[in-house]
Amino acid sequence: MTRNVGSIDALLRIAAGTILLAYALTPVFPDLAVHLPGANALGGWAWLGWIGAVPIATGIFGTCPAYSILGITTCDAV
């Protein structure tokens, strides 16, 4: 697959994915909930944070399948 995720886009994806994974891990690490606003209100929705693995993976590998389908690229060297 060709690279279609630029460096700034990749950093933003990794940051957003990390935040989502942090919300997912709040039931496992209750002390983490103290540092995340609204984490206690998640209740049974914390599993949704595992979706954060997708933007982390696309940021690390530099390829987004949705960008490929839509013909989008944010890569610096096109």
Query: What separation lies between the terminal Cα atoms?
Result: 14 Å
Biggest sheet record:
none
The portion of residues assigned to helices is 40-55%
Strand content: under 5%
Mean pLDDT: 83
Structural class by secondary-structure content: mainly alpha
Shape verdict: elongated
Q: What is the element string, with H for helices and E for strands? A: HHH
Uncertain regions: pLDDT < 50 for 5+ in a row?
A: none
Strands, total number: 0
What is the radius of gyration computed over CA atoms, rounded to a whole number of angstroms? 15 Å
Distinct helical segment count:
3
Task: Describe this protein's structure.
With 78 residues, the protein is an all-alpha fold. It contains three helices and no strands. It has helices spanning 7-24, 53-61, 65-70. The mean pLDDT is 83.
